[in-house]
Structures
1.
Amino acid sequence: MLKKYTFNSDINGYQVLFLGAIHGNEPCGSQAIFKVVEKFASHSIFPLQGSVSFIPICNPLAFERNIRQIDENLNRIIRPYALPQTYEQHLAVELVEHISSADIIIDLHSTSAPAAEPFIFSDYPDKLADQIAAAQNIKYIIKGWPQIYADHNTIQDFSTGNCAHTYGKTCLTVECGYNLDPLSIQTAYHVIMNTLLSLGILEGYPSLPVKQYNIIMDKLYIKTQSGRLSQEFHNLDKIKQGQTIAIYQDGTSIICPQDSYMLLPKADAKVNDEWFYLGHLQNN
Ligand SMILES: [Zn+2]
């Protein structure tokens, strides 16, 4: 059973659920959640309306071993299972229950790239998701993930966001920075507080947000044969039209079709795996 902490007010309002360590080697969400839970538990803060719940460690065994997953990527398989087979499928069954009984889900992650800039995935943006995203001190909001996956029906995307959307709930996934950077804990902590402040669940105002940029994902590039990226790329690097991005062993290459942002590059991707995505800046 996943450990869940809930703090209720007496007044009707949103039920907000924060998730940590869907991936076991991403401790920032868990640590930030424990800090906030302590504040609620000691009554130094309390919900003015609705309720706040936390599941600090969504993949306990992987968290204990400090690895991403035990059997499979939990954030691709969150749906009901009549007969769960893998460790993560058992977790998924529980998470579906929790996600479907909340109104707003904030899923806290970090990434394996050192010095990674925090960003938000808003996969199914709605008014509430936009409001919460706008209250964050995070510069980049990436949209369009489900559309990308709809084009690649071989890859399944039963993520927390997808699960929430299935039940008509609002969800944001926040990548809080590098796995091992203590700043990622700070970022996750501010995400929790700014979310609750922006919803009026805590008293006060969210910190003044930074100027934000919406990046729309255009295309997923699968590594179709052995090859390499043309240089070391980082998430959100700007790429110029005509720039060579990747070179295959047979001499062919992938050229950037238009000025783009590099998204989630995986230098060590295996053949037939996701290699990188390109996106563009939405004019806002
Ligand atoms: Zn993650």
2.
Amino acid sequence: MSDQAEHRRDAGLVRAEGCTKVYGDGPASVTAVADADLTIRAGELIALVGPSGSGKSTLLSMLGALLTPTQGSVRVDDVDVGSLDERARTELRAQRIGFVFQAAGLVPFLTAEENVATVGTFAGLARHVARGRARQLLDELGLAGRAGHLPEALSGGERQRVAIARALLVDPPVLLADEPTAHLDADRGQQVVELLADAVHTGDRAGLIVTHDSRVAAEADRIVHIADGRLRTMA
Ligand SMILES: Nc1ncnc2c1ncn2[C@@H]1O[C@H](COP(=O)(O)OP(=O)(O)O)[C@@H](O)[C@H]1O
Ligand SMILES: [Mg+2]
């Protein structure tokens, strides 16, 4: 194992320390996440579970450098996100973090393959490289025959698999998913969870899935509970 791989495994690829997010100020302020410590190691999939409004999406957004903590720090692959300006944070996200959200969020007038390949532009991939990798990922995710279809011609489960391919295009070390099975039936949901878990485990990525879904929890290496913005790790 290389030094970097070993370090990612031991010290963690994503590290939140004392992470707090307060929305607004004064009496109307909401503390969405309070003093969260969380480490995600390479090859580890965490299920983040908690009731609606408990701070799951806020925490995921801070881990993914989409949102700046009010207090505390987040490190992604040894980079202190708080030390970066907006442009550098955008670059960090494009190169190192794959996101999958509740809705696939595909561009309606681009084919599945184009939807996946397009994100390569932001990470500086040559167009033909991005397209080749997009085709390969769609193939691996069981969508070879769907590459040329527009999103409207795909089922919900297929669209979410395209979103996974898009999240993996640049081979990011971190994969974050926010309720990715919320709009899917049991079978499609299970398939999506297995694909995400596989991407984390075989790709040695740090993974976190926000979910209410017990099937997701079953695939996870660790379950972290959140209530009223506070984390509790169960053994
Ligand atoms: N942009 C925002 N402005 C103000 N309050 C917010 C904002 N986003 C979320 N909240 C509040 O923060 C709390 C946590 O929200 P969220 O992280 O979305 O929870 P979850 O994903 O677990 O449903 C909730 O009380 C929510 O109303
Ligand atoms: Mg949420």
